[in-house]
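My current task is to audit a protein record that another person submitted. I need someone to confirm that the C-alpha coordinate line plausibly describes how this chain folds. Take the sequence as given and treat only the C-alpha coordinates as open to question. This is what I was given:
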Amino acid sequence: MKNLMGKTRTIDNPYETYTANNWTWKVLKKYQADDNKPFARWLCAVSSPYTHGGYDMGDVYAKEVLQSARKVDVS
Protein backbone atom coordinates (compact mmCIF):
# COMPACT_ATOMS: atom_id res chain seq x y z
CA MET A 1 0.00 0.00 0.00
CA LYS A 2 1.36 3.42 -0.96
CA ASN A 3 1.75 6.03 1.77
CA LEU A 4 -0.17 9.09 0.53
CA MET A 5 0.75 11.10 3.64
CA GLY A 6 4.51 10.55 3.49
CA LYS A 7 5.53 14.12 2.64
CA THR A 8 5.79 16.68 5.43
CA ARG A 9 3.19 19.44 5.43
CA THR A 10 3.12 22.75 7.30
CA ILE A 11 1.16 23.43 10.49
CA ASP A 12 -1.31 25.50 8.46
CA ASN A 13 -2.03 22.60 6.09
CA PRO A 14 -2.05 19.30 8.07
CA TYR A 15 -3.27 15.99 6.67
CA GLU A 16 -5.58 15.42 9.66
CA THR A 17 -6.45 17.11 12.93
CA TYR A 18 -7.46 15.35 16.16
CA THR A 19 -8.70 16.85 19.44
CA ALA A 20 -9.30 15.72 23.01
CA ASN A 21 -10.07 18.08 25.90
CA ASN A 22 -7.68 21.03 25.43
CA TRP A 23 -5.21 19.09 23.26
CA THR A 24 -4.88 19.26 19.45
CA TRP A 25 -2.73 17.03 17.24
CA LYS A 26 -2.09 18.21 13.67
CA VAL A 27 -0.72 15.33 11.59
CA LEU A 28 2.02 16.66 9.34
CA LYS A 29 3.42 13.32 8.14
CA LYS A 30 2.71 9.61 8.52
CA TYR A 31 5.70 7.26 8.38
CA GLN A 32 3.56 4.18 7.61
CA ALA A 33 0.47 3.83 5.43
CA ASP A 34 -1.22 1.54 8.00
CA ASP A 35 -2.14 3.34 11.24
CA ASN A 36 -2.97 0.01 12.90
CA LYS A 37 0.62 -1.25 12.96
CA PRO A 38 1.86 -1.58 16.57
CA PHE A 39 4.48 1.15 16.33
CA ALA A 40 3.05 3.39 13.58
CA ARG A 41 4.40 6.94 14.04
CA TRP A 42 3.18 10.35 12.99
CA LEU A 43 4.97 13.69 12.89
CA CYS A 44 2.60 16.02 14.72
CA ALA A 45 2.33 19.61 15.83
CA VAL A 46 0.73 19.35 19.28
CA SER A 47 -1.05 22.15 21.10
CA SER A 48 -1.94 21.76 24.78
CA PRO A 49 -2.44 23.89 27.89
CA TYR A 50 1.31 23.53 28.43
CA THR A 51 2.33 25.09 25.09
CA HIS A 52 0.74 28.48 25.88
CA GLY A 53 -0.91 28.94 22.47
CA GLY A 54 1.99 27.52 20.46
CA TYR A 55 2.86 24.06 19.18
CA ASP A 56 5.43 21.43 20.08
CA MET A 57 6.51 19.28 17.15
CA GLY A 58 7.63 15.69 17.27
CA ASP A 59 6.83 12.07 16.60
CA VAL A 60 3.91 10.40 18.36
CA TYR A 61 2.56 6.87 18.20
CA ALA A 62 -0.62 6.77 16.15
CA LYS A 63 -2.19 4.36 18.64
CA GLU A 64 -1.96 6.90 21.48
CA VAL A 65 -3.75 9.61 19.51
CA LEU A 66 -6.39 7.28 18.08
CA GLN A 67 -7.26 5.92 21.54
CA SER A 68 -7.65 9.29 23.21
CA ALA A 69 -8.82 11.77 20.55
CA ARG A 70 -11.34 12.18 17.78
CA LYS A 71 -10.74 13.30 14.22
CA VAL A 72 -12.14 16.76 13.50
CA ASP A 73 -10.60 17.68 10.15
CA VAL A 74 -9.16 15.97 7.09
CA SER A 75 -7.37 17.99 4.41
The mean pLDDT is 95. The first helix runs from residue 62 to 68. Strands lie at 16-20, 23-30, 41-47, 56-61, 70-74. Residues 16-74 form one domain.
